[in-house]
Amino acid sequence: MNQETPAPSPSSEPNGRTALVVVAHHRSDSLTAAVAERAAARLEAAGYRVDLLDLHAEGFDPRNSEADEPDYSNRDKVYSDEVHAHIRRVHAAELIVPVFPVWWFGLPALLKGWIDRVWNYGLAYGRSRSPMEGKRMLWLGLAGLGERDPNADLVLDLLEGPLRRGVSEYCGIFDVHTAALFDSEGQDLTGEARERHYRELFAGAEAAVDKLVAG
Fold first, then answer.
1. Are the C-beta atoms of 43 and 50 separated by less than 8 Å?
2. Kind and range of the H or E element at 23?
3. Of 195 and 78, which is predicted with more confidence?
4. How many independent structural domains does the chain possess?
5. What integer best gives the mean pLDDT of the chain?
6. How much is the pLDDT for 215?
């Protein structure tokens, strides 16, 4: 696939703000990884310092444990070192962009476990003033089915329900964008038609990032 769509002209200086791009795929050569790289480049071109968090490459363990189980009687509970290291990166970011494949109309285990463990009580929610206040988010999901598939609404429901409302808004983030890149497999396409399809997917991802940056 052609990944040479030009990025916008970069700002002369970084604006001092950080964008956290979270990649949730086990393959570095996946379309998910390529889209995340495009998103990161777009953010850098807009002047952001980008923290690219590749969950699989960094060895994040999505399995929960007693150490990271919330204690609702103690919002100051100290969780595992891994969780605190990750939440520091979340807290440091003004923009948060998870990029992920939609599997079975839900999140891949890698990203679901990251939310379960890291976006924890006292760290992301459960305080009178949200630690996430003022942040902005873009949930960028890649779906194998087509936009006109009868089940495409389930992808949009995931983005607008559990992710926008159930995670972001619950944690105090209200400037939330969502984008679905449908037909990520490019099924039944060959040659130039397939290349054009992937150029359009990349353009869609970049447009979503531009909208987030514009606020």
1. yes
2. strand 18-23
3. 78
4. 1
5. 91
6. 81
Helices (H), 93-186: 109-118, 152-158
Q: Residue 183 belongs to what domain range?
A: 18-214
Tell me how crowded residue 15 is: count the other CB atoms within 10 A of its CB.
Answer: 11
The pTM for the full model equals: 0.89
Residue reference for tokens 């924890």? 120
28 within 8 A of 52, measured Cβ to Cβ: no
Cα 21 to chain centroid distance, Å, stands at: 6
* CATH classification at residue 148: 3.40.50.360
Q: What is the DSSP code string of 32-100? A: HHHHHHHHHHHHHHTTPEEEEEETTTTT------GGGS--TT-TT----HHHHHHHHHHHH-SEEEEEE
Bigger pLDDT: 142 or 4?
Answer: 142
Domain assignment present for residue 208? The answer is yes
Among the residue ranges 50-54, 72-76, 85-89, 185-189, the one predicted with the least confidence is 185-189
Residue 194 maps to a domain = yes
The three-class DSSP label of residue 145 is coil
Token pair of 61, please? 């363990």
Model pLDDT for residues 119-158, shown as the tens digit of each residue: 999 999 999 999 999 999 999 999 998 889 999 999 999 9
DSSP conformational letter for 3: -
The two tokens of residue 178 are: 């969502």
Kindly compute the dihedral angle of the four CA atoms of residues 126, 155, 208, 195, in this order, to the nearest 10 degrees.
150
Identify any residues that bridge with 142 across adjacent strands, giving them in sequence order. 101, 181
